[in-house]
Design brief:
Number of helices: 19
CATH topology: Na+/H+ antiporter like fold
CATH architecture: Up-down Bundle
CATH class: Mainly Alpha
Strand order of the largest sheet: 1-2
Radius of gyration: 21 Å
Number of strands: 4
Number of domains: 1
Order of helices and strands: EHHHEEHHEHHHHHHHHHHHHHH
Length: 425
């Protein structure tokens, strides 16, 4: 039985409340920085899996064509069709618009070294994931292209990059590249959501035991104190309490989303293989840059951050609840081996190389968790993991400002050529 995608939107808040309930009852999950929507979404997906095995398969349609829902994320030539769009697309693009608008130039300038380290390290990680993937595939007697498909194409790249490159992989000889890419990217999304927060927690515990820890440490976390669990209702109330300021910023976000739809449309016409949210992210960056360059102060990052704190969990709840975990059975044999090895390699790379290069301090741990999140899963899971950490231990402004544009935009500019290079080998 396939239900309308709108049911997912209706279930998003109950799923988030379920995640909050479990995290409060099982505080060890919160201490390992597992985000609320990840817990609730995966529990709901497991419920659906149980129903399928019980002979009562329930699934949800992924797309809707309601004009009022798709207008902001669609250009008029497409919208008049009307187009079917993923239900979670407006939430995703709205969130990334907030990422662009909330990134003040002064923080980007002062965080230049962190940005450079993250970008270079993730580019190296892309090469490493592909090389490891090819080596494991060849060792198992599988096509070398499968190693690339289970490398940076789907781990650093995610679903959008996998689908964008699928025709080229099929032309190169990898049959069913789209199906393989979707399954591998889903594996990465789940793994990134579950592992990036715990890696950050482990790095912070390790650092806390080190007497030479940086003086720039975050506030010490009392292990006896109940961990902080994000409250979606409280976040919504915080936005509502801002009144007209929240409404004005929301309208600006909507305008950037619409402008971004046209920017993405133009990029697609130019043949660029970029995520759907890229245009809106660029629009948000542009507006923020012009605002800061003009010496204005009406654009408030704290308001935009509060709006993003509502959009992100909704997006993740809808996305993870809709996962058909049975499809992960397709990630079997060589695919599972390649993905498992690459996940371990990514965790080791982040902890052993990236964390020290970033300075071994609190900001470094948060940024390393973020890199792990988008290096295995997606930028959204990276931000969710960083949010879980900072709610527990205090703000990390450089990491939370620099990681999203690095994982959501800049890395696509280097990952695509890396993938293309491996395709030519």
């Amino acid at each position: 039985m396939t239900l309308s995608a709108w049911y997912l939107l209706a279930l998003a808040v109950p799923v988030l409340l379920l995640g909050e309930f479990v995290l409060r009852r099982v505080p060890v999950l919160a201490r390992f920085n597992i985000p609320v929507p990840v817990v609730g979404g995966l529990l709901f997906a497991l419920l659906l899996l149980g129903l399928r095995y019980a002979g009562m398969p329930v699934s949800f349609a992924g797309k809707v064509d309601a004009a009022w829902w798709t207008w902001l994320v669609t250009t008029e030539p497409e919208w008049l069709a009307p187009p079917a769009r993923n239900l979670n697309l407006p939430l995703l693009i709205g969130f990334f618009t907030c990422v662009g608008l909330a990134a003040p130039l002064r923080l980007l300038r002062t965080g230049g070294r962190m940005l450079l380290v993250l970008l270079v390290a993730t580019t190296v990680l892309s090469v490493l994931q592909n090389a490891v993937g090819v080596a494991v595939a060849v060792a198992l007697g599988a096509p070398a292209l499968l190693g690339v498909a289970c490398g940076s194409l789907t781990l650093v790249g995610g679903h959008g990059t996998a689908l964008g490159f699928a025709p080229r992989f099929e032309q190169a000889g990898l049959a069913a590249a789209a199906t393989i890419g979707a399954s591998a990217a889903t594996f990465g999304l789940v793994a990134g959501a579950l592992l990036s927060g715990p890696l950050g927690a482990w790095l912070l515990r390790k650092r806390g035991a080190n007497p030479t820890s940086s003086a720039a440490a975050a506030p010490a976390h009392d292990a006896q104190r109940a961990p902080v669990v994000a409250s979606f209702v409280a976040d919504v109330q915080a936005v509502a309490a801002l009144g007209w300021s929240a409404l004005g910023h929301a309208l600006l976000i909507a305008a950037c989303v619409k402008a971004g739809a046209w920017a993405s449309y133009g990029l697609d016409k130019l043949g660029a293989t970029l995520p759907a949210y890229m245009g809106a992210l660029l629009a948000g960056f542009t507006v923020r840059a012009l605002h800061d360059a003009a010496g204005q102060n009406w654009l408030r990052s704290e308001v935009i951050t509060k709006i993003a704190a509502v959009l992100l969990p909704l997006f993740l709840a809808v996305t993870l609840s809709a996962l058909n975990l049975q499809e992960l059975a397709q990630v079997a044999g060589p695919m599972l081996a390649i993905l498992a090895v690459n996940t371990i390699v990514t965790l080791a790379f982040a902890a052993a190389l990236v964390y020290p290069l970033l300075g071994r301090d609190y900001e470094a741990a948060v940024a390393t968790a973020g890199l792990t999140g988008y290096g295995i899963g997606s930028t959204a899971t990276a931000v969710a993991a960083m949010d879980a950490i900072t709610r527990q231990r205090g703000p990390a402004p450089r990491a939370t400002t620099i990681v999203p544009p690095t994982g959501g935009f800049l890395i696509d500019l280097t990952n695509a050529p890396v993938i293309a290079a491996f395709l030519r080998l």
